[in-house]
């Protein structure tokens, strides 16, 4: 077997607590499908037959109850439950399942919605015998107004600085603005080997990683690394240009301990001399202009595939959630109105809307650019525009909902007027209530 | 035809009786007719198996006949006998049926066709006697020799839709995706595959590849992207992948390792062929492995058999590649004297090894590295030589005739050595050999014996490799002129990989068996076959 897929679905959604305080992030409905269905579908399309899902007990329960996951996903899902307290980082989770890992792994995060051609990432991993290959995408501006946001001012998100070489494939440098105190410093060893570095900031990390098995073994020794994205990836990227790996072995006993630890990272296969011979005899070099051999003799290599076209969203903020709801249905061609929904003749349902299963939409309603969840009741003379209505919601007559997110089981009273609001789970909006740009939660 | 015969002879009899001398033509015609009658009797027996082969022939014969730019090569070319049997077969079919209904014009046409067949078969007979060791390509004309039906390899019949259909079926059976051709092909090479590097075969594979062993997928990717390039490197990488396959292999119940493992290897080899056509050295390595696997005794335990095979592979690499390189270097160093100016072309791992060894042995020489687009492999050779401390000059192939007066020897590497003494190597090698010959500079080809191939080729058209045409597109000063070459209907980009150098241009071949002339290659092949 070449790869084992690991789906990280235990995340708490710390950046959109308004949505996730009741529903775990992995099961948030996007286009009337649970969020984790999208990466599972991606893996299934590509040809995986088994996935290891790391998640919490709550999500596991919801998964077994959800019809979409039970019926549509034909792969074998091996669910590993971890504690819900949130102390376990993604790397800790990998360490937890290390006994199950027998080959190289493909780690996917549950909040990834993309139509990327995965073979591009995996081909980099295979062809260059890389230790890490990841996927990134050019970030798109979010055009929708987000409830709760005062004006168009965006919070200063911490930028990621990603440095790639001339070909745009080799990952040379990765740092987050938060970790850089004074400025961006690049080591001379990197510049000596790769004189032209392209530093990009507007990239979204898709959290899709191909990792060699030796990395998982390395993690078991180094218990200090707890997050893949935050610590492991920058560590590996830095280690590419570390002196100890590139052949210079010290005879110090003190250094030996560290040496052993880092040697685990590139456990040489039994036929290393043959591979060396093939590389020596091959007339290929990944760079030109200096006197060093292919890959500068480095054994640890990190690659990135940056996609400039196509969809790639990480649903970890409210804005991303709204954007994803708008665009995710376009990935799959599904009927606008679910066959089991009941809609009367005189309602206007725009073609970019989705009506979920078992819905009831009364007459004289207008639904434009919105997503209506399963088992929702929409009474007469309701106008829903640019909104996301989750499951089990009741909207009484004469309501006007614009640019809002209504969570599950909420009840919107008669004649309410909501603009750019977020209504929490199970909330009640009084009849004739007016709300503008408010996030309402359980008290 | 039989009706014709007596007519003609009647004519001639008449002339004879009239006392005139038979003209040369008429005598020839007589002789030919008699021979043709004999042949037809034999042909009718073999019509069935040959009819299907003849349908394939027109496809391959057209490029071969187009290649008749060089008349001396045409005689031995396998294309010539091909067109002849076709009209003969065509004429054969109606003749027994429509005998009475033929017109004089038809008879004349048949006669002409018969004459062509005779002429062609005579020539091919001459050629065949000299090319016994040959070829999957030269067809045995239906004559006194045993009618051995040799099939043309499919990779040079890409413009024949039937062959393509057969290939598609075979790949479907083996569950390997079919790689589609890309771009407009120059008509002279339309019988070869042309793939694009941007459409790798892995697009159509599932990601955790279950049908094909991951080591083979990795290898195929590395071949198609050019990461593993060069005859020796490709063979070593292939054998390394085979070692991994053997290690991960388990014999299914009720199967024998010797037979099942060989069957397992077949789809992998098809896959690699789709990624990049196999080289001659790879072909020989595969033959060796298959032979070793089939020779495993059935009572041998699986673990033992597997370790034995791994040892065989290690042994093969050690003998044929590593030690051979050492032996060749030893012989070659004798030929390098102090003060020499050596010209090398492209990046041959063997030639680089020789030069580095010679430098270690303190020979004083300098090197001129000749390079060519689009691969620009000479840069890599230049780097390796300069790293050792050898003083080098770098020129492009367009300057070769300007720099040759300085050169004392030319060392060339080979991709394969063909059975008729031709050297198959990177495109441009024959140019260099030609110009060197014109300047009377000795040309030495270095080649290990495992690259010797039983194929015969006299031109670079019949069997070659077409690389991605987009490699020829280059951006200079911000302008990419060929960017939309596909929109221009009369423009074709051709990126050839190999060419063949005739033995007259090669003075010496240095192999691990010694220094031999080019024409001794079939002897080496014969000896090798006897050994095995």
UniProtKB/TrEMBL annotation, chain A:
This is Translation initiation factor eIF2B subunit gamma. GO terms for biological process: cytoplasmic translational initiation. It holds the Pfam family NTP_transferase. Component of the translation initiation factor 2B (eIF2B) complex which is a heterodecamer of two sets of five different subunits: alpha, beta, gamma, delta and epsilon. Subunits alpha, beta and delta comprise a regulatory subcomplex and subunits epsilon and gamma comprise a catalytic subcomplex. Within the complex, the hexameric regulatory complex resides at the center, with the two heterodimeric catalytic subcomplexes bound on opposite sides. GO terms for cellular component: cytosol; eukaryotic translation initiation factor 2B complex. Residues 5-139 form the Nucleotidyl transferase domain. Acts as a component of the translation initiation factor 2B (eIF2B) complex, which catalyzes the exchange of GDP for GTP on the eukaryotic initiation factor 2 (eIF2) complex gamma subunit. Its guanine nucleotide exchange factor activity is repressed when bound to eIF2 complex phosphorylated on the alpha subunit, thereby limiting the amount of methionyl-initiator methionine tRNA available to the ribosome and consequently global translation is repressed. Residues 341-431 form the EIF2B subunit epsilon/gamma LbH domain. It is found in: Cytoplasm, Cytosol. Signal peptide: none annotated.
């Amino acid at each position: 077997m070449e790869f084992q897929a690991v789906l990280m679905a235990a995340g708490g959604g710390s950046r959109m607590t308004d949505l996730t305080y009741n529903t775990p992030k992995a099961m948030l409905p996007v286009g009337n499908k649970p969020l984790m269905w999208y990466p599972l579908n991606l893996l299934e399309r590509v040809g995986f037959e088994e996935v290891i899902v790391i998640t919490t007990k709550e999500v596991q329960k919801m998964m077994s109850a959800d019809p979409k996951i039970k019926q549509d996903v034909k792969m074998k899902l091996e669910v590993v439950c971890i504690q819900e307290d949130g102390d376990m980082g993604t790397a800790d989770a990998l360490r937890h399942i290390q006994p199950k890992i027998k080959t190289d792994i493909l780690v996917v995060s549950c909040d990834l919605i993309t139509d990327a051609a995965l073979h591009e990432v995996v081909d980099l991993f295979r062809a260059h015998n890389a230790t890490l290959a990841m996927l990134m995408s050019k970030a798109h501006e979010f055009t929708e107004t987000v409830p709760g946001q005062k004006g168009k001012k965006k919070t200063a998100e911490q930028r990621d600085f990603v440095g790639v070489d001339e070909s745009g494939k080799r990952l040379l440098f990765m740092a987050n603005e938060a970790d850089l105190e004074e400025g961006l410093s690049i080591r001379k060893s990197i510049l000596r080997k790769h004189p032209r570095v392209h530093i990009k900031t507007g990239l979204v990390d898709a959290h899709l990683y191909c990792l060699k098995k030796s990395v998982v073994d390395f993690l078991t020794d180094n218990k200090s690394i707890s997050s893949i994205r935050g610590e492991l990836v920058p560590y590996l990227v830095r280690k590419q240009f570390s002196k100890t790996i590139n052949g210079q072995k010290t005879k110090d006993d003190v250094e030996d301990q560290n040496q052993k630890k880092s040697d685990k990272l590139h456990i040489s296969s039994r036929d290393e001399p043959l591979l060396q011979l093939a590389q020596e005899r091959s007339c290929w070099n990944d760079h030109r202009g200096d006197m060093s051999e292919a890959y500068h003799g480095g054994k640890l290599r990190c690659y990135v595939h940056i996609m400039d076209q196509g969809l790639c969203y990480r649903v970890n903020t409210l804005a991303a959630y709204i954007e994803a709801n708008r665009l995710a249905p376009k990935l799959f061609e599904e009927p606008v109105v679910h066959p089991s929904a009941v809609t009367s003749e005189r309602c206007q349902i725009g073609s970019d809307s989705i009506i979920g299963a078992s819905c009831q939409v009364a007459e004289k309603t207008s639904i434009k650019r919105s997503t209506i969840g399963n088992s929702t009741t929409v009474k007469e003379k309701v106008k829903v525009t640019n909104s996301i209505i989750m499951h089990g919601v009741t909207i009484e007559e004469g309501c006007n909902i614009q640019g809002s997110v209504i969570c599950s089981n909420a009840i919107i009273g008669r004649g309410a007027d909501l603009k750019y609001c977020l209504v929490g789970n199970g909330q009640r909006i009084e009849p004739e209530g007016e709300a503008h740009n408010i996030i309402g939660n359980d008290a | 035809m039989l009706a014709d015969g007596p007519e003609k002879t009647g004519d001639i009899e008449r002339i004879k009786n009239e006392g005139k001398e038979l003209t040369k033509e008429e005598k020839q015609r007589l002789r030919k007719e008699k021979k043709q009658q004999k042949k037809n009797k034999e042909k009718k027996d073999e019509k069935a198996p040959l009819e299907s082969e003849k349908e394939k022939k027109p496809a391959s014969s057209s490029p071969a006949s187009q290649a008749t730019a060089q008349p001396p090569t045409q005689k031995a070319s396998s294309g010539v006998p091909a067109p002849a049997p076709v009209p003969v077969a065509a004429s054969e079919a109606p003749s027994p049926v429509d005998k009475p209904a033929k017109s004089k014009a038809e008879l004349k046409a048949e006669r002409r066709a018969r004459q062509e067949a005779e002429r062609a078969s005579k020539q091919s007979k001459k050629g065949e006697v000299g090319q016994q060791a040959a070829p999957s390509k030269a067809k045995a004309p239906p004559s006194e020799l045993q009618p051995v039906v040799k099939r043309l390899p499919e990779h040079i019949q890409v413009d024949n839709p039937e062959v393509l259909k057969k290939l598609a079926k075979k790949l479907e059976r083996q569950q390997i995706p079919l790689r589609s051709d890309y771009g407009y092909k120059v008509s002279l090479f339309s019988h070869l595959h042309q793939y694009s590097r941007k459409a790798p075969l892995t697009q159509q594979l599932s990601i955790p590849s279950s049908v094909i062993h991951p080591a083979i997928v990795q290898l195929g990717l590395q071949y198609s992207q050019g990461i593993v390039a060069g005859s020796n490197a490709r063979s070593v990488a292939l054998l390394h992948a085979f070692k991994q396959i053997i290690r991960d292999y388990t014999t299914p119940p009720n199967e024998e390792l010797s037979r099942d493992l060989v069957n397992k290897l077949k789809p992998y080899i098809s896959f690699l062929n789709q990624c990049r056509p196999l080289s001659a050295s790879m072909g020989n390595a595969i033959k060796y492995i298959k032979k070793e696997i089939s020779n495993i005794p059935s009572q041998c335990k699986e673990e033992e058999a597997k370790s034995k095979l791994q040892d065989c592979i290690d042994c093969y690499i050690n003998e044929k590649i590593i030690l051979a390189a050492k032996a060749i270097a030893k012989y070659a160093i004798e030929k390098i004297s102090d003060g020499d100016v050596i010209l090398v072309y492209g990046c041959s791992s063997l030639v680089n090894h020789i030069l580095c060894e010679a430098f270690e042995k303190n020979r004083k020489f300098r090197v001129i590295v000749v390079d060519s687009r689009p691969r620009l492999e000479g840069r890599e050779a230049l780097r390796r030589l300069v790293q050792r401390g050898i003083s080098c000059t770098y020129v492009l192939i367009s300057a070769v005739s300007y720099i040759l007066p300085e050169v004392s020897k030319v060392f060339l590497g080979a991709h394969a050595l063909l059975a008729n003494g031709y050297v198959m190597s990177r495109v441009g090698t024959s140019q260099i050999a030609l110009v060197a010959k014109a300047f009377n500079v000795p040309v030495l080809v270095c080649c290990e014996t495992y690259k010797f191939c039983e194929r015969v080729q006299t031109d670079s058209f019949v069997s070659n490799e077409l690389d991605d045409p987009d490699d020829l597109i280059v951006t200079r000063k911000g302008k990419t002129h060929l960017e939309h070459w596909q929109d221009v209907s009369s423009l074709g980009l051709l990126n050839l990989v190999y060419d063949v150098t005739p033995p007259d241009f090669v003075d010496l071949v240095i192999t691990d068996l010694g220094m031999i002339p080019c024409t001794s290659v079939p002897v080496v092949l014969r000896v090798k076959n006897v050994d095995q």
